[in-house]
Write a structure and sequence with these properties.
CATH topology of the largest domain: Rossmann fold
Number of helices: 19
Number of strands: 14
CATH class of the largest domain: Alpha Beta
Amino acid sequence: MISVLYNLAWWIALPMVLARLWWRGRKEPGYRRHVWERLGWYAPATGLTRIWIHAVSVGETRAVAPLIEALLAAYPTHSIILTHMTPTGRSAGQSLFAHQPRVQQAYLPYDTAYMVGRFIRHFSPRLCLLIETEVWPSLIDQCSKRSLPVLLMNARLSERSLKKAHRLAWLMRPAAAQLTCVAAQTQEDAARLHAFGAPRVEVTGSIKFDVTPPPAMCQLGADLRRQIGSRPVILCASTRDGEEALILDALDGLGLAEALLLIVPRHPQRFAEVERLIAGRGLSLQRRSELGTAALAQKTAVLLGDSMGEMFAYYAACDLAFIGGSLLPLGGQNLIEACALGKPVLIGPHTFNFASVTEDAISAGAAQRVSDGADLMRKAQTLLHNPPLRTAMAEKALAFAQQHRGATARSMNLLRAYL
């Protein structure tokens, strides 16, 4: 009965879902492309045995890259069907796997039995891997009915997300119980997932620690740094709505006139909005997309990172990095990439989506917690004016990233039983 009601709700909501998709396409045209895939209709598939991996957006797509590379190397007769929900996730996948003819991309169909069933019949995957927090009741149910193993990989579940899941326990608990196996990032994640009903949970660590900074991105970052010159660079990475205003309000009067503020909003549809916000404060700015190969103007106070897929380059070009989504109660973002490039990390008070790794990084001396925008700028000022302290923190960040590697190998050991 629950499955019937859930599917009926999807069909009733479908016109509104499609209308919203079209509406979002005003700012992100990618939402208006490949719409048929979201309804379960796809281009022809290759004849190889397929592994289905669902990575909803950019973060999950970048995180799963080491596992995809390991699977392709270990199983040369298999291909990957990589599904997403967002155009930015699909674009990230195209950038990462353009050199891999055995990786095919598509949008995940909406979670109705009919559409998911069409997807499974079309691609005939041997295994389904969901990444991090993606639990779709109809998807899991359709896989279970076809004896198709479903594993939740690199899984995380915060205390806050667990409370939300309990409010939908009538729907989510049966789905969790049908998962074949869960590979959790931490012991805390594992305990919460098991308590919610996942029958088998293993702790494999975070695959994000195994992401290797691409040499091309490191070179791009070095080139960008040469364009900037000798000025210290404060990177504000993956900022969310409302955070840029807090950062800009705190910028004045802190003795950071010589520093360059590099702001990279998390969502591309906000680039123009953030540009207006900066200009409205009378600050001289340039866009990364308009910089080309020219040197950055000395008078420029803010560089707006309005490009996709270049976050590693931004990290490579900076002296220290603030990780967005954490000044406001949004849960924070992944700080591992910054640590992997040996950058001191500043992070706000709201990191419930990445609680364990954030606390571990702070304990290791790789990151510092800031309370608000003013505290962020004060701590940035301290680090920029104290090179030995900044160097020591950078070394601890790199060591922290390196000592937690190995989740990909542990995940592969787990997957061999199903391949």
